[in-house]
């Protein structure tokens, strides 16, 4: 299999004059970007980085970030992208755990870098005059340098290490080889039916698997990656119209923001023909609104992870709302019983269990970085235990119901938040909804719905809505709490643990509705 450097060369050779990268006023063709990438790769080598060394990069989605990612692939250096919102202790942990030989950063995250003792012992490459640097990013780019054109990596070399944002404990490093990354990008192209010359919005962060996949897949089809440094719905809409973007790959939260922006109605989004989402389930209400707003020719629900890029896909997300479809082209999936310790303890159709994936899949990682404890928990007999719950319906389609840790246990019943959220999302007054379990002396946990409203509705109205649905009685929320915002991670995942712990801002317009007495069926 080709390594990623040679993969990029394919597009340079096929379409040297095609537009490849956009960041504000900067526009680079594949030929021009290739020269810049080689120059940066040589700059990293001149700094002392060698094949297999780790480079920590703490940047927003800017042209320097995208260029460093590709430069590392050519040089055989392992790029370690980190959330630019990282705290000093997170930078410290990742510098030490990854054994980083250099760090690249910008002003927005400079304090975290400066306050990391380990970061002070390695070269610090600063952008935009960020304080604390040992050299400027411009110093990597030496005009007239005779850059080495040949990639230094092979398909078996490690391409990057992604640090997962776990809900508890230290983040886990996920090393992925060039062949894993190329297979994931090829699958993304195939499963989203990308054609040559597609144009996408580069807003999903390049420290996240979705952002990396968007970057790599555009290179596979000689496409255009339009950088959006920080999420802004209005700017995203302007980019769609200005650059004629053809495909979007976002988390549901960002799609919600696009539709909610006042500029959406007056923006020409007709160039967008393909929608894809991942990172979290999309509720039925948002699915319907997006389908009506964009009328896409393809609407893909992609379910995956940093460890195994694709678990499953559904290329017609509105046909069976909530379905994650079937295993991707590089993947084998099973659902095992919730208490299973072996991959052979499969659950019956319709039975909720834990989703697991075959580690022989071309996109699957081989184990966590320096974490034998995490490997022992998640890797069993050649299968990756995802920690996600779900079930196969009788047609063989997968439904993802949440995380094992998010499961609400009320009165001895296992209750998944996703089904309840789907029902409530269809109410016209509901803008966003998240369901979580809150401690209860009688029931262990009670089901609570946290609602961000589009227009006024109270708890009684929502309870009546649930009673009229096909939601079984024991799953009905016992409280409705109205909030200003649903707490989310930097990539848009709902943080149910914060809701359960009371870490949210109540809607100032009204107090929570009175709880209704639980009734068991």
UniProtKB/TrEMBL annotation:
Top-level taxonomic group: Bacteria
Annotated GO biological process: fatty acid metabolic process
InterPro entries: AMP-bd_C, AMP-bd_C_sf, AMP-binding_CS, AMP-dep_synth/lig_dom, ANL_N_sf
Keywords assigned by UniProt, alphabetized: Ligase
Chain ranges of the AMP-binding enzyme C-terminal domain: 420-493
Pfam families the record matches: AMP-binding, AMP-binding_C
Protein name per its UniProtKB record: AMP-dependent synthetase and ligase
The species this protein was found in: Caballeronia fortuita
Phylogenetic classification of the source organism: Bacteria, Pseudomonadati, Pseudomonadota, Betaproteobacteria, Burkholderiales
């Amino acid at each position: 299999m080709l390594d990623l450097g040679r993969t990029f060369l394919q597009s340079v050779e096929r379409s040297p004059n095609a537009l490849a990268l956009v960041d504000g006023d900067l526009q680079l063709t594949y030929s021009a970007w290739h020269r810049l990438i080689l120059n940066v790769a040589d700059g990293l080598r001149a700094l002392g980085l060698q094949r297999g060394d780790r480079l920590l990069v703490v940047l927003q989605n800017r042209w320097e970030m995208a260029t460093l990612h590709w430069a590392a692939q050519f040089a055989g250096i392992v790029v370690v992208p980190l959330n630019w919102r990282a705290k000093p202790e997170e930078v410290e942990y990742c510098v030490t755990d990854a054994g980083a030989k250099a760090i690249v950063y910008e002003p927005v995250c400079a304090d975290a870098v400066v306050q990391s003792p380990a970061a002070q012992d390695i070269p610090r490459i600063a952008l935009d005059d960020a304080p604390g640097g040992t050299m400027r990013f411009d110093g990597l780019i030496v005009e007239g340098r005779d850059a080495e054109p040949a990639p230094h990596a092979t398909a078996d070399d490690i391409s990057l290490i992604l640090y997962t944002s776990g809900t508890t404990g230290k983040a886990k490093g996920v090393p992925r080889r060039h062949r894993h990354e190329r297979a994931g990008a090829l699958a993304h192209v195939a499963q989203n039916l990308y054609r040559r010359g597609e144009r996408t919005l580069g807003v999903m962060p390049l420290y996240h698997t979705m952002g990396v996949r968007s970057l790599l897949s555009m290179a596979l089809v000689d496409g255009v990656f339009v950088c959006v440094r920080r999420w802004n719905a209005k700017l995203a809409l302007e980019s769609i119209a200005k650059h004629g973007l053809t495909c979007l790959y976002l988390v549901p939260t960002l799609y919600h923001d696009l539709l909610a922006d006042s500029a959406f109605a007056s923006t020409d989004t007709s160039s967008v023909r393909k929608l894809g989402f991942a990172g979290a389930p999309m509720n039925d209400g948002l699915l319907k609104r997006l389908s009506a707003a964009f009328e896409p020719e393809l609407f893909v629900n992609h379910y995956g992870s940093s460890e195994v890029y694709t678990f499953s896909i559904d290329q017609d997300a509105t046909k069976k709302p909530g379905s994650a479809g079937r295993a991707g082209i590089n993947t084998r999936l099973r659902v095992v019983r919730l208490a299973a310790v072996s991959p052979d303890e499969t659950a019956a159709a319709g039975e909720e269990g834990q989703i697991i994936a075959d580690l022989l899949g071309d996109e699957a990682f081989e184990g966590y970085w320096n974490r034998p404890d995490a490997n022992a928990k998640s890797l069993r007999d050649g299968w990756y235990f995802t920690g996600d719950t779900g079930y196969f319906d009788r047609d063989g389609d997968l439904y993802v119901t949440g995380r094992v840790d998010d499961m609400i246990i009320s009165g001895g019943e296992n209750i998944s938040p996703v089904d309840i959220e789907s029902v409530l999302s269809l109410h016209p007054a509901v803008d966003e909804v998240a369901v979580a379990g809150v401690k209860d002396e009688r029931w262990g946990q009670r089901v609570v719905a946290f609602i961000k409203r589009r227009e006024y509705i109270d708890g009684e109205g929502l309870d009546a809505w649930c009673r009229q649905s096909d939601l079984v009685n024991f799953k009905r929320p016992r409280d409705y709490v109205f909030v200003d915002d649903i707490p989310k991670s930097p990539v848009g995942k709902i943080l149910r643990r914060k809701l359960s712990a009371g870490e949210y801002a109540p809607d100032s317009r009204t107090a929570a509705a009175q709880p209704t007495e639980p009734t068991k069926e």
